[in-house]
Amino acid sequence: MTDAMSPPGALAGLVVVELAETPAAAYAGKLLSDLGADVVKVEPPDGDPLRALGPFPGGVPHPERSGMFLYLNAGKRGVTLSTDASAGHELLHGLLEQADILLTDLALDRLDPLGLVAGELTRRHARLIGVAISTFGHEGPCADWHGADIVAAAMGGMNDTVGEPGRAPLVLPGYQSSMQAGAHAAGAALTALFGRRLTSAGQYVDISEADIWASFNQPGRAHIFVHEGRVRRRGGHRTMGVYPYTVLPVRDGYISMIAGRGTQWKAFMELVGDGEQPEWYTSEPRFRDRLEISRLYADEMDELLAPWLESHGKEEIFAAAQERAIPFAPVYTTEEVAEHPHLRDREYFVEIEHPAAGTHRYPGAPYKLSASPAAVRSPAPLLGEHNDEIWCGRLGVDAADLATMRREGVL
User: Fold this and answer.
1) Quick one: the chain helix, strand, coil %, rounded to 5?
2) Are 52 and 66 in contact (CB under 8 A)?
3) Which residue segments constitute the domains of the chain, with CATH numbers given?
4) What tens digit of pLDDT does each residue of 230-259 get?
5) What is the DSSP code string of 215-281?
6) By three-state DSSP, how is residue 97 classified?
7) I want to staple 314 with a disulfide (CB 3.0 to 4.6 A). Which of 330, 336, 364, 411 is the partner?
8) Inter-residue contact 209 to 135 (CB < 8 Å)
């Protein structure tokens, strides 16, 4: 772990308040924290629901040892606050008065009583950037609906193409709706900050997870339907397009195979044929049209390629494909990713020592900056760890009043 003596990040001096219960706003806060922002995470007195998500060291659930929570909240300060209490409202808005950005993923019907909706928030805190993440957004016919990661992926059209033909669709793993929404939220917050430099006014940014997936799908779904009349269907281990756009087994695992250009496909056929195109390929006119292969002969082509693929390892195929400018890639296991030489040499994983969870490796920042490198400056906060520092030190709450609020369940 990078300690507190690390060079200041690109966002040093920026104050962010995070009011989150899903990975979405928490990931947005992490991205800003890694860049040096001072992110204050506000949890209910009984803790963020993310503390119940694993994995846990030794497989034993514990609110201070959630892998998800520890990863998403490293580098942040943590306070507890009941937003159901009037005293909690005052403390929250006192914190926002000193902040540059609010990140939240609470539902609209919970934000409204807190005065954290568009119009009301900017009226009360004119320079504050409010970024609200929800499944469907705060406007439109679904604004009042509650949703979740799996619902956003379905409504945005992503799940419709994941899974085997003729079977139920599958959800993408790893809270990808939330993570994509969090990345968009962080980018939107920084864009709004540029706007504030010009106008001195804050903004309220509305992020819809379903809309994000819909925008991802537009080029590959709406475009081909409107302009070509094609309807994309679930393809199992394949994606609709020219063959191969697929994942197939090899001697020691799996290889992801994409050869969109004719030159790439020709180079692959010559690789399979040891310098010449295989006889079974040159003798079959129906193999000339790769769209037709995808539509009618993909299973047969898989079987024809199987002997060659299963006699070679994924790293061997990867290296040979790289030499020929063919965009194939090995499919790595979790263990292989954790020990991969490229990630090791890039120092991607970071080691963080936590007082309750111990020392573990975590994914690092997905980028490299030279002048202001990303850094994790502290472990994820213990529940209420910075209550005194923030409520008394930053907002000036009297220690006796703070003790009373603890007894009354406000903190």
Assistant:
1) 45, 15, 45
2) yes
3) 15-215+342-407 (3.40.50.10540), 245-336 (3.30.1540.10)
4) 777 777 788 767 889 899 999 999 999 999
5) HHHIIIIIHHHHHH-------TTB-SSSSPEEEEEETTEEEEEE--SHHHHHHHHHHHTTTS--HHH
6) helix
7) 330
8) yes
